[in-house]
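Supplementary Methods S3. Input chains for the assembly prediction are listed below.
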Amino acid sequence: MSEKEIQIQCSGCSLGYEGETVVSDINFEVREGDYLCILGENGSGKSTLVKALLGLKSPNSGEIKRSGGVGAGEIGYLPQQTVVQRDFPASVREIVISGCLGKTGLRPFYNAAEKALAVKNMERLGITDLAKRCYRDLSGGQQQRVLLARALCAADKILLLDEPVTGLDPKAQIDLYELISKLNKNGITIIMVSHDINAAVMFASHILHIGGQKQLFFGSKDDYVNSPIGRSFILSEGGDIIE
Amino acid sequence: MSEMISKLQDYFTLPFVQYAMIVGLLIALCSSLLGVTLVLKRFSFIGDGLSHVAFGAMSVAIILGLTNQMLIIMPVTVASAILLLRTGQNTKIKGDAAVAMISVGALALGYMLINIFSKSANVAGDVCSTLFGSISILTLSKFDVWLCIALSTVVIALFVLFYNKIFAVTFDESFSKATGVKSDLYNLLIAIVTAVIIVLAMNLVGSLLISALIIFPALSAMRVFKSFLSVIICSAVISVVCAAAGILISILMSTPAGSTIVTADIVVFLIFWIISLFKRG
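Predicted structure tokens for the full assembly:
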């Protein structure tokens, strides 16, 4: 593991709003090809951490270092769906190519390379035949694929997924997890925020568990499964989640 | 039929009718372009709020006896637009409540100021025409027309140049921010352009009916079309056709221009709604 390049290093980070600390003393690193799952209850500071990782928010103290070809704005982001998007009249192609927008700068229109990238990423996620379909007419799983393709247009080294399976039916959840896993095996670093402990244990290589305003665990998945915190969390959550 | 055509021909030799047509079509085009974004961003009512602010500002301008009322109306409305779209993200007063507050507040204050200070004999008539735009569209000066042409050109140019960015910011603000798009800047741009269009549109339909120009074409187009580009184009076509039809009908039947245009928009909306039912069912 240790020979791989570090892409994100978070050391002694404390995060919050206007002086109020939401979560403090966060220490972890993400290396090329890792699959990190960030676990935590609602309100534990997961979404604040996401903002900090994306560079939209600077930590109150400590630092987040990006290296290995991952600059700010070069993390492919899959946000949680908003109400606005559910009935949005846009074709799949329009949405996927909008991922290239960070590359256009002041240029008003997309160039040939960006159009080709959109086509390539639609192929990669198996949504080429949906290109002309309207986003609002797609199933939840298809919509997430579209947004993943868009994220890959923005950045092809590292993806940050915020609760990607929320609202999907069990079959679509499994499909999406398998797709993400496939992307990971092809060399894309994955950071996934989730409260689905079963999926985390099944797919992730590393776990970061936050709660009670601090970091409870960071390390490899195997260590987590054998740690007291990991065991108790798996036991308490394991029963009521789909098998 | 030929009688109607010759009547129209007569009217169109009059400069003020030509002016009304040019201004009407341009405003309809601009408002429909922005309408799609505003409706999708859940800002449908910002048009309503801002137009009342513009009404309040106009009352002040009338009392001060300014010959060029734009000098007050434009900056005040633009400032309010920025304020409103900002508070949308801040949560002390929620977006819709802020719009409602500013909207009715400005309306009340404006009407009171006109009543107290106005030297005109027909206050109720003046207020009615600013609210429903029944007369002002036919009293445009050459300067008004050129100002409208210039501002519309700027609005359309901005829209075309920033089309992809506006799309991204409308669809998903958090993603755009994460990929380094300056979404706050584009929200500001949208706010300013909205304010400019509303001030222009006050002459056409009056400050009570402006929201209709923004909302109806966008909603009609969204019923039927499936990509953002086609929705925008369709919305622009609907808006321009309805404005033209509305102005022509209002000339022939002597109905108020503003409400005739809006009625045309409503009819088109109903037609598109029925089409969408057939398409789905």
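Residues 239-243 of chain A have pLDDT under 50 and may be disordered. Chain A touches chain B at residues 54-56, 72-73, 75, 77, 79, 82, 84-85, 88-91, 93-95, 98-99, 101-102, 104, 108-110, 132-134, 137, 147, 150-151, 154-155, 160 (CB under 8 Å).
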